[in-house]
Design a protein that fits this description.
Elements: H1 2-9, H2 13-23, H3 32-47, E1 51-72, E2 77-80, E3 83-84, E4 91-100, H4 106-111, E5 120-124, H5 139-148, E6 153-157, E7 181-184, H6 186-195, E8 203-224, E9 229-239, H7 249-268, E10 275-282, H8 290-301, E11 308-313, E12 322-326, H9 331-345, E13 352-354, H10 364-367, E14 373-377, H11 382-385, H12 400-419, H13 429-438, H14 442-448
Length: 453
């Protein structure tokens, strides 16, 4: 088939991503680098002959400054390597006793409720020794619980080995929070935990200075118009922005530049879809889904959101083996059928279909409006996930073949959906409520202030 041939033998996604990592670097929203990434995406879409537009939004964007973290008995202090989480205070200088809150979940916090006020709370970013089936919270949700319980600071322990430090937003809504939140490596976390004792308490000292500035950023959307049902839209989206510690090659250059190459493939083979396909590269995802939310609100204001039949989100997607879908009745059957067709082309695609709802990426605003959302399922390996949001997220982690498989498998999915005679509907409001509740997301959404039921 033409798409398969072009995706394999004409691949450009890895080449474009490599260019970006060398000549642009990180793609933090509100920086010159973020602006250059937007221009690159726009120019590539335009060269493909697509209808290209920008979706602007304004935001108060946090910028990293200096950080010092030490620990000790109040007289002798020892320095630790650390990184500030985003949206932490602009100026902080504090000392506070350290208390271990384990995984930082609600039960952990409530079990220590009497002891937390005024303390710096040590907690894991991931789950350590948690009962099977435990649902982790996002770092911003853990910080919100810590603030609710009166903590003076949060010290996160990253579970990746070899001292890898992680950043990311500590805020639910993109605004600066009231307490510092920092990340230390797993080995330093073990060190601190070995020294916490009721008989010999230790304290941490945190000094940080950051900045916030008002910025105007833009997401890029490109349209491949449909022939038969141009008013019905299939969205293929992912975030173009990244954090500032590295070049963001896997998060989310891997997804964003695969989307660019998929758009190139479809235009190169002269594909004419029945429904319109929109390729969307969002800025501001890392600061709180800013670009995708701005576009969704713009579509709602123009009464166009109802035209979106589904949203496929590529965030750290590489070499998919299946698809996760949340939508109305019939969607899993549709993906089972399409998956079987993909397997005829390549048996390495396992055709797995799941229907679990997830949050914290650009599909979330669509999900909460009942729009069907599809997430490619993949396993990038511990060497990639250990560099998530960290200084080691660079091009050496990216397997070019995984990007080719993004284009092949997501391309076959998208074209099948665009040309299918009938697509199932999304979730009605009460069915959506029940789905989110069944999948354990009510608490997360309540903490975010997004639970409307």
């Amino acid at each position: 088939m033409a798409l398969e041939e072009e995706a394999v033998h004409g691949a450009r996604g890895y080449e474009w991503l490599e260019y970006s990592t060398i000549h642009i670097g990180h793609r933090l929203t509100g920086t010159d680098q973020g602006g250059r990434a937007t221009e690159l995406a726009d120019s590539l879409f335009t060269r493909m002959g697509l209808q290209v537009g920008r979706v602007p939004f304004e935001a108060e964007v946090w910028m990293r400054g200096a950080l010092e973290l030490t620990y000790g008995d109040g007289t002798v202090q020892h320095a630790l390597r650390a990184e500030s989480l985003a949206n932490t205070p602009l100026t902080v200088s504090l000392r506070a006793p350290l208390i271990d809150a384990g995984n930082g979940l609600r039960d952990d916090m409530e079990g220590l409720a009497h002891a937390i006020p005024g303390k710096a709370v040590l907690m894991n970013l991931g789950l350590v020794n948690a009962p099977e089936g435990t649902i982790n919270l996002h770092r911003s949700e853990k910080v919100a619980l810590a603030i609710e319980h009166g903590a003076a600071a949060v010290v996160f322990v990253n579970q990746a080995e070899h001292g890898v430090l992680l950043t990311g937003t500590a805020s639910l809504d993109g605004r600066v929070i009231g307490i510092p939140a920092v990340c230390i490596g797993s080995e330093d976390g073990e060190l601190l935990r070995s020294q916490i004792s009721p008989d010999a308490p230790i304290e941490v000292a945190i000094s940080m200075s950051n900045a916030v500035r008002a910025v105007r950023a833009e997401s890029v959307v490109a349209r491949l118009p449909g022939d038969t049902h141009p008013e019905e839209v299939i969205v293929i989206g992912g975030h173009l922005d990244s954090w500032d510690l590295a070049s963001g090659a896997t998060d989310n250059g891997l997804g964003a530049f695969s989307i660019l190459d998929l758009a190139r493939c479809l235009t190169a083979i002269g594909y004419k879809p029945s429904r319109t396909i929109v390729f969307a590269l969002f800025m501001g995802e890392e600061q709180g889904l800013l670009g995708s939310t701005a576009w969704l609100n713009e579509m709602k204001a123009r009464d166009e959101l109802r035209q979106v039949r589904c949203m496929i989100n590529l965030d750290m997607t590489g070499g998919p083996y299946g698809f996760n879908v949340v939508g109305g009745a019939g969607w899993t059957d549709v993906l089972d059928t399409i998956g079987a067709e993909i397997q005829k082309v390549d048996t390495s695609f396992r055709g797995v279909v799941d229907d679990r709802a997830y949050l914290h990426s650009d599909h979330q605003p669509f999900l909460l409006e009942g729009v069907p959302v599809i997430l490619p399922m993949c396993d990038l390996g511990g060497h990639v996930y250990g560099c998530y949001h960290s200084s080691c997220d660079d091009i050496h982690l990216v397997d070019p073949r995984r990007m080719v498989d993004n284009v092949r498998f997501v391309g076959m999915l998208a074209t099948a959906l665009a040309d299918r005679a009938i697509l199932p509907h999304g979730l009605e409001d009460q069915a959506l409520r029940d789905k989110l509740r069944d999948d354990g997301l009510e608490e997360k959404l309540r903490i975010q202030g997004e639970w409307r039921w």
